[in-house]
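Running this now, will post back.
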Amino acid sequence: MSDQDGNSFVWFLAGLGLGALAGVLYAPRSGNETREALRARAEEGREYVRNRAREAREQAAQWADRGRDAVNQQKDQFRAAYEAGRQAYQEATAGGGEARPPKSL
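Update: finished.
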């Protein structure tokens, strides 16, 4: 039984060696070329992520500007309404406390 196990292990090692040899012989690129291709793909991925992050920052800045503009517009409208109400109150109370009768048609 041990003779058969030893023989199987030898055949396993032989198959492993032949597979490695076939992989090296039929590889589409050399090791250096493969590493260079992997580096190039990694750099492309990094550049893609950088571009997407830049676009996201620009989009967020645009949204923030729009929000800021909307808030400023609302503040301006509120100030105008407040000033109009204040002026109307001052005009109404400027007569020394006299109440004006409503105008008739």
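The CA atoms of residues 19 and 97 lie 106 Å apart. More later if anyone needs it.
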